[in-house]
Amino acid sequence: MAKKKELCRDKKGLFVRNLGWRKTPSGYSQKKFYLGRQEPQARIASLKLEQLWDAVCRRWEAATPPTPRLSSKPNPRHKITTETISTRNGPLTALHSIGVGELDFERPGKPVWDEVSLTIAEAIRNGEATVRVPLPRQLGQSGLTSPSIGQWLDQLRRDVPFIHIELLDEELQGEAENEIKTEGDKLIKRGRRMLFQGAGGETMHLALDEYIKALESKHVNLDGTVKTLRTTTGKEPSTRQMSSPGYKKPSPTPGRSSPKTTAQRQNRHY
Question: Biased composition, Polar residues: where in the chain (predicted)?
Answer without folding.
Answer: 228-244, 254-270
